[in-house]
Amino acid sequence: MVEKQTTVRGAAAVFGISKSTVHKDVSENLRREDPALYEEVRKLLDKNREERHLRGGEATRKKYAKEALS
């Protein structure tokens, strides 16, 4: 996730698992196994959470712009 700067949804799609599993693996397993990497991923998750309303708004804008052209 850190290398590609991806979202939980993106990581879940790549690995073919649910978003819940990604969260659980990060919050429980990674914290135990590699605390330094956990901190990097946690910062990325926090950044994504702060920006998600922007991504959602952009997706909605594109959806309605596409519909207007049809």
Précis, in short:
With 70 residues, this protein is mostly helical.
Tags for this model:
70 residues; mainly alpha; 3 helices
Write the layout of secondary structure elements.
Layout: H1 8-15, H2 19-33, H3 35-69
Helix pairs in contact: 1-2, 2-3
DSSP helical segment count: 3
Uncertain ranges: none
- Described by the principal axes of the CA atoms, the overall outline is elongated
Distance between the termini: 36 Å
Q: Mean of the pLDDT scores? A: 89
Number of domains: 1
Rg, nearest Å: 15 Å
The number of E-state strands comes to 0
Following the backbone from N to C, one meets helices and strands in this order, namely HHH
Structural category: mainly alpha
The residue fraction in helices comes out at over 70%
Oligomer: single chain
Q: What's the main sheet like? A: none
